[in-house]
Structure formats: C-alpha cells, structure tokens
Input
Amino acid sequence: MHGALSPAADALASEVPPAPQRHQSYLRVVFGRFLRQPIPVIAAVILLAIILAAVGADLVAPHDPFQTRVSRRLAAIGTSDRLLGGDELGRDVLTRLIYGGRISLTMAIVPVAIGLFIGGFLGILAGYAGGRVNMAIMRAMDVFYAFPSILLAVAIAGALGPGLVNGILALSLVFIPPIARMAESVTTQVRGYEYVVAARLSGASTVRILREHVLSNVAGPILVFSSSQVSVSIIAASGLSFLGLGVSPPLADWGLMLSALRQSIYVNPWVAALPGAMIFITSMSFNLVSDGVRKSMEVRR
Amino acid sequence: MSLQLSRPAPLRQIEDRGGPAQPLLIAKGLRKWFRLSGGLFGRAATVVRAVDDFDLEVKKGETVGIVGESGCGKSTAARLISGITPADEGEVVLDGESFFAPRSRISREQRRAVQMVFQDSASSLNPRMTITETIAFGPRAHGVSRAEARDYALDLLAGVGLPPSRFGERYPVALSGGQRQRVNIARAIAMRPRLLVLDEPVSALDKSVEAQVLNLLVRMREELGLSYVFISHDLNVVRYISDRVIVMYLGQIVEQADAGDLFATPRHPYTRALFASKPSLDPRHRVQVAPLVGDPPDPVNPPSGCRFRTRCPIAEPLCAAAKPPLDIIPGSGDGHRAACWAAIPGSGHSLSANAGVLQ
Output
C-alpha cells in the first residue's frame, strides 16, 4: 500500500484549475458588491450629504440659525430669504435643519457607538466564556429588555435631567443590551467552530484566540446590526428632544424643531413637516445602507 | 522530523520519556454526561450519557480506529482524549505523565503533544485567514516570530503537497475539500504532536480525494513517528489505516481487537451487524434484510444491562439484568475483548457455552 503514496502529492495539483496568485482583500470584495446594489448606494449618498452638511454647517447654511425676523414668521416654502420657510420666530428653517443635523446625528451615533463598545465587549465575553459568566451577563441584559426601549430612555433621561450629555447617556444604556445579545449569539456560534477548537488545541491564550480568530469573524455581523440601530437611535433621540429631555432652545435639533413647529401645523403644514421628514429620511437611509452592507457580507459558496 | 523542510522546524521535538514499552496514551474511565435542562427547581435533570466508562490505550506508532454509528459518542470521545472537552471523570496519561485530570489545567507545552484533525467543513478553517496564517497561528502562540512561523507554514504546505507559491495566500473558500483537509493536517502537524486524533478526516471527501488524503496520513505517520486515533464510520477506511479497532455503541465500547482479527471474527452481535450492513461487491453476498433496524435507543434513558439488547437478535433476560463486562474472549486473537454475555463462557447465556465457535 505504500507504493501508492508518492503520486498523491502530484495528483493534487490537478484538482482545481489554478486560481489568481493574489486574492482580493475581503473588504474590497464587500465594497464591490455594495456598489452593485442601487438602492443602498443612493441611501449612502443621501446620508453622506446630510452628514457633510451638518459637519460643514458654518459654510453651507445660508443664514444665522439664531437670527429671528418677525416679518418671516411661519413664512411659506420658497420665500426669498427663507428657502424652506421660517419657523415660529422667523428663523430660517433650512439653516436650522442643517445645524440641527449636528445635534441629531451626534445623539444618534454616539450612543450606538458607546453601546457597540460596551455591549460588544460584554456580548463577546459572555459568548466565549459560556456557562455561568454567560448566564450572569445575559440575565442582567434581560432586565433591560423588560422595558420598551423608548420608555427606558425617557425614564433615564427624565431622572438625569435634560441636556445633550444626559440624553446620550440615557440612549447608550438603551443600546447596550440588544448589541450585547447580538454579539453573544454570533460569538457562541463561532466558538463552536472547529477552527476555534484547533486554535485552543494549539495552546494559544484566550486573548490571542479572541483577537485573531473570533473578533474578525464576529465584527461584521455586530457592526452591521449596530448601524441598523442608528436609525432607531435617531428616532429615540428626536423623541427625547421632542419631550424636552434633549437639548434646550434656542439650539436646533430635529426633534425639538418638530415639537415647536407642531403648534403651527394648521398654519403652515409643509414647514412643520420638514424636521419629521429629515428624521425619516436619515433613519431610512441608515437602515438601507446597513441592509446593503449585510447583503454584501453574506458568504457565497 | 524527516518530513522534508527547507530549514529546521522552529518548535522542538517533544522527547520520548517512557521508552518504547510505555503506551503513548492511556485513557481510563472517561465519562462525559451532558446536562440538557431542568434540575434547578426539583425537576429531574435530563442527562445525555454521551460517553461512559471509556478506556483506551494507544501504543507508540500505533493507529487505533474507533467505529460506530452516528451519535454513539465517537466524536465526544475524541474531544475527551485530546482534553479539549473536559471529562467529568477519568484521566488521560500521556507517555507516563498525567495529561488530563478533572479540574486541572493542561500546560501550553503539554497541549501541543495531542492535536486534532476535523472533518472537512465550512468551519474547519477560519474563512478570514489565508491558509498560511492559519498554519502559522499555532507556532506563533508558542513564541515563534511572525516571519519564522510564516516560513515554517510555507514549508509545511509543501510537505502536505500544496505548492506554497500557488496556495499560500489563498483563503479557504478558494480550496477544494481535499486541499482544505491537507491544510487541516498541516495545521495539526505544525505543532509537532505525538498523537493525532482524527475525527472523521475523510468522511466529507469524495472517493478519489479520500485515497490521497489517507495516503498522506499514512506517509506522515511513518515520517513523523506519529500515533493516530482514527474515528470514522467507514469500515473500509478504518480497516485500511488501523492496527487496532474499537467499536462503540451508545457511548460505550462494545468490542476491541486487532484490526485483522476483528474483521475476520467479530464477537459482538453489534459488530457483526455493522459489518453485515457494509455493502458487498459480490452479488452472492447481497444483503436481503437490513441487519440493524431502527435508531439507537435514547442516550438519556439507556436500556438496563447491555445497551444493545433492544436491537440484538440474541438478547436474553440475562442481558437486561446485568451489564456485560468488556472481557477478553478466549479462543480469539491477542487482546480481543467484547462486552457480550453470549461471548463470555459460563455467563449463563444460552449461546455462551459454545462461545468459542460462534459465527
């Protein structure tokens, strides 16, 4: 039976046709697939425009966001120096929407980022350790699940008092549990894979296994899930501002603007609807983009 | 290491301590029960008896095959032997030194002596690492520098028949099943182990590739002086590669013997049924009736006495009353053991008197 041994290695070379020498990196493959989906690309462009406008508000905005003008109170859309109308104090709505994006986007993205770090860490720890550690962490997370997320944010923000920082803090606490749960479930799955078992058999330390084998395989799904949570966060953040638990006037914020313009909805419904439209468009875009990324990351065999 | 490497391996050979007479691995009384649910508030806990009272001895240079149908505890046994799943009870001794005991840690240096090769599947290799990185990971964990580990990995790829210039930078998705299995083998031997536990290493491969991988395994065993524990449900494969074979049923060993002896004169009715279910190429030996009917019993509530009695053609009341010991069967080859009352002389089973001429 030993005579048959040597041809084995040579025969192998013909098993599969030669593949290109260097393989495209994973990120480039994902990016290429993303570009081939029209709707997520459009959403990404809209999102990018909103973010850029918010960041460069000082350059883009046509007016001073705090400059009131009695003659332009509740001006209609298309008025000469109030392109998207004027608010209840005659300030330029377009300018305030652009400046409002700063606070609204901050209050949407920062809590999810904090939730991603803390929730991701807790979830990966729970998933990889398993057993009692998992039980302790995940049952603690379940306590937060007992409350509807918006209600929880309102309750925490109410207890802490209004303000940007408190709003962010309240929302962060809301986003830790779902992200932890997501991270836990993918890590538990990856932990059982043979390549992780093989890594453990080699005697590598847990930290090394987590860093080199686990993290790269769970990061994708966790990131995609977190980015989809941004759309939830925008709505929750606007809700807090709407209730007066976010930033205080005269600062601009989409939720706050919606709350103030709501009273003039019978006078000038189109202007009143604009902050709501911004919230809707941004939230929708985040959702579509993260959906597109998720689809591009699916492993095809 | 006589495997042709272009430079010396960065991990040192684990030296032999016990001499040739000392078995490489002795596993004694390994037991693993998995708790399913309950047990907290007075409800009885549901326990799956995956592996019960498992003994194994692997001599230096020997290949021990483990066969049995799906769900009989073969894979759990493999993970207990390698210490990756801690056994509830029992111990594993490696070359005279304690390797695994409950509630004790296996040191990093000891750990590398026993490596596993898994069935080829989507999850046997990290999809985010090139195969070079995958092989280099273990040596790096043992303090080998990144560059040195990489060179070593490329050498090993060549050693298992994958030209590194063509395959080194590939990701697992760009490999065929047989090629992935070669990478799995290279990853295991990179640690310079003494024992390889192969858990269904060729079961997912098609026949022509299976033969190549088996030949590679045989070559490695000779060149590197390895011992194997080879798990498979394919009797032909086990017969080809094994010196000794263990037959498992429902978490327990029912028969063990030298490969030739076992295939020539199986003593346990389960082993015979297993062999009879192997399709024959000879039409005169065509099987008319399926030798084993139905699924194995629930491992949560295994039958009393002999666990095979519910499907056994020669079961008698004695078999339900007492569990047969895994005894040496007189009149068979060296070390042939079977756990069957009918094979043990003077047991009281109606067939036991002429146990020597059974079959």
